[in-house]
Amino acid sequence: MSAPFIGKREYFPGIGRIPFEGRESDNPLAFKHYEADRKIGEKTMAEHLRFAVCYWHSFGNAGHDPFGPGTRNYPWDAGSSPIARAEAKLDAAFEFFTKLGVPYYCFHDIDLAPDADDVIEYEKHLQHMVALAKMRQQASGIKLLWGTANLFSHPRYMNGAATNPDFAVVARAAVQIKAALEATVELGGENYVFWGGREGYASLHNTHMKRELDHFARFLTMARDYGRSIGFKGNLLIEPKPMEPMKHQYDFDSATVAGFLHKHGLDKDFKLNIEANHATLSGHTFEHDLQVASDHGLLGSIDANRGNAQNGWDTDQFPTDLYDTVGAMMVVLRQGGLAPGGLNFDAKVRRESTDADDLFLAHIGGMDAFARGLEVAHALLARSPWETWRAERYASFDKGAGKDFEQGKLSLADLRELAAQQGEPAKRSGKQERYENLINQYLMR
Ligand code: XLS
Ligand code: NI
Ligand code: NI
Q: Where does the signal peptide begin and end (predicted)?
């Protein structure tokens, strides 16, 4: 194990490289399930899970909410200038990534570098920080899973970015997308994400929805063409979310975005980045939206978090629910993995969690939850009767008339003839409880 990357000063003193100690350990700062090099099937846990830490919640969010300011005093926020603070934040971030032992990170342009209204100044800030990040990546071996642009915080984007009714704002949004694409290419980012922050509407009264959606497609097409022209070979990812901050967000869920991408001929270059809490906000389960994306051949990456059963907003909590992680990993394993995507912890510690080690505890919990989900999902698929049971449920389509139906060889009138001959079909139980029991049985092993 290489020594943790530590910059000019240490931001998490007293915490070393997080070890794997196994499920009997009570050491809060140790992994109980995540053992990076352990093989699950053909791949190691690290290769399956491809964990990433996000820059924004972990190093940029001191805990503010609509009712009050931040509760955490980050030592990297003490510097005298915006650039000095960004440099300190970068060192703290790389120290954290290496101590935790994750292979990837993700950022927005203005998490990494200070924002500026002046275009040239904004670009200079980002280039400066990208050069430093490149050095940190080389020194630590940590890689960029994806980059993105924040087109939702600045007040100019209050009515949207690419879907803004004012062309001047649409053009200004291009400044950030262009720069963030360049930063991603420079840092060898394996994906690029578009979360349509304020792409949606607050009221349909003043909104020309079709026109805004056409603008959105035009903008994404331009971004794709520019990305490809500067050598970006990875996946472009759209991250669906149904609401918040807007009343209605255009990238509502997997099904909506799949239709949009197909309609505009973007499905070859774009895939989806599915966030658990966004799926649940849209009235689905996490597993549902993953499955829809995967069925379209569009599941590219995951923002791993969870919502809260009582709160109706995006609470972005760390994933701890093993049922959820088993379900997610079943979808991922069935499609043969996530690469070049990964599992990015788009999650934040609670406002009341104010110690430096809380950030470690949160990530350790999330990584262990997904490692256990991986183990159980793999065992269910490889060793349990699950797949056989499910296949048997559809066996009537594997031969005879059922197979002819699937292959398009029968007409509606043919089906009527068959039904008239065979009489009333026998009832066949769905046996849901059998599967539910199997999950618990394997979880407890
Ligand atoms: C916010 C989104 C955001 C994206 C990146 O709800 O999840 O964090 O992942 O812009
Ligand atoms: Ni979210
Ligand atoms: Ni996200």
A: none
